[in-house]
Amino acid sequence: MTIRFLAAGRLLLLAAMATTGLGAAGAQAASASTLYDMSVFLNQPHPFAAPPSTAQASPPPALPTVQAAPKGDEAPEKRPAGESGEASSDDDPLEPVNRFFFGFNEYLQEYLLRHVARAYLDYVHSGVRDSIGNFFHNLRSPVILANDVLQLEGKRAFETAARAGVNTTLGVGGFFDVAKSWFQIEKHNEDFGQTLGAWGVGEMVYLVLPVLGPSSPRDAIGKYVVDSYFDPLGMYLSNTDREWVTWAQFGIEGLHDYASILDELDSIRKTSIDFYAAVRSLYRQKREADIRNGAASPLPSLNYDIE
C-alpha cells in the first residue's frame, strides 16, 4: 500500500509539474508573439506626423500689393516743411547740428532771456519801447542806405536818406518816427545778406547760430561781417577802443527785438508739431519776402532784426 501511495503521489507531482511547465511555455509564447508582433508598430501613426484635421486648410496670407505712383494731376500734394511731425533733411543737411544749437538756444531763452524780456515788456512803457526801436533803426540807416544802393533801388535809397535826415533832426536823434507820422515815409530793412539774395545768391544751407538764432552762411556773413563796414558809428567805436559800447548796443537791440516777438514765439511753440521745423519754415519765408521787398510780413522776425 505504501509503495502504491508513493508511486501515485510521484505521478501526481509529475503531472502538476507538466501542467505548470506547459502554462509557462504558453505564457512565454504569447508574450513572445506579442513582443515581436511588428504590426503593432506599423499601425501606429508617425510621432512627428501632423494630426489629421477635418477643417479646411486656410490659404496663405496675401502679400501686400504695391500701388503704382499716380501720374499727372493725380500726384499727391507735397506739404511744406514744418507742417508735419516728420523732419525733412533734404533741404537741411545740417539738421542734427542745427537741432543741437536750437535746443541750446531754447534752454538759454527758457532760463534767462525769456525772464528778462518779460520784465522788459512788463515794466517798460510801450511808448518808450517804440522810441528805443526807432532809435536803433535810425542808427542802422547807413547800412540800409548802402544796401539800397548796391541793389540799385533808387527810390528806396532816397526814402532811407530822407528818413534818416528827418528823424535825426525833427525826431530828436531818431527816438520819434516823424518821417512816418508826418510825411508817410515807411521804414524798411536791408542788409548785405538780402543784397546777395537779390543778386541771385542762395542761402547755401540753413544754419542755426548759438544765441543769434536762425540764419544761413549768406545771411550771417552779410549781416555780421560785411555790414559792419557800412556802419560809421561802429567803425568809430572800434577805432577808438570803445567796443563795449558796440556790445551794449548789440545786447539792448537784441533784447528789444526778442521781446517784440516773445508772444508770437510762444504761440508757435504751443501750436506746432515740430517747433524747430516751424521756425525754419517761417525764417525762410520771411527772408524770401525781405529779399523781394514785399509788403510788411506778418511773420515774426525770428533772427531778431529791428523792423
Would you spell out the secondary-structure blueprint of this structure?
Layout: H1 2-35, H2 39-42, H3 95-123, H4 126-139, H5 141-150, H6 154-169, H7 178-183, H8 192-198, E1 207-209, E2 213-215, H9 217-224, H10 232-239, H11 243-260, H12 262-271, H13 275-291
Antiparallel strand pairs: 1-2
Unreliable stretches, pLDDT < 50, 5 or more residues?
A: 1-9, 11-36, 46-50, 53-58, 63-88, 295-299
Order of helices and strands: HHHHHHHHEEHHHHH
Strand content: under 5%
Structural class: mainly alpha
Distance between the ends? 151 Å
Mean pLDDT: 78
Radius of gyration based on Cα positions: 47 Å
Instruction: Give the number of DSSP strands.
Output: 2
What is the approximate shape?
globular
Q: Residue share in helices? A: 55-70%
Tell me the number of helical segments per DSSP (H or I, 4 or more residues long).
13
Major pleated sheet: 2 strands, antiparallel
Strand order of the largest sheet: 1-2
Task: Give an account of the 3D structure.
α3 packs across α11. This protein has 13 helices and 2 strands. The chain has a domain of 197 residues. It is globular, with a radius of gyration of 47 Å. It is mostly helical and 307 residues long.
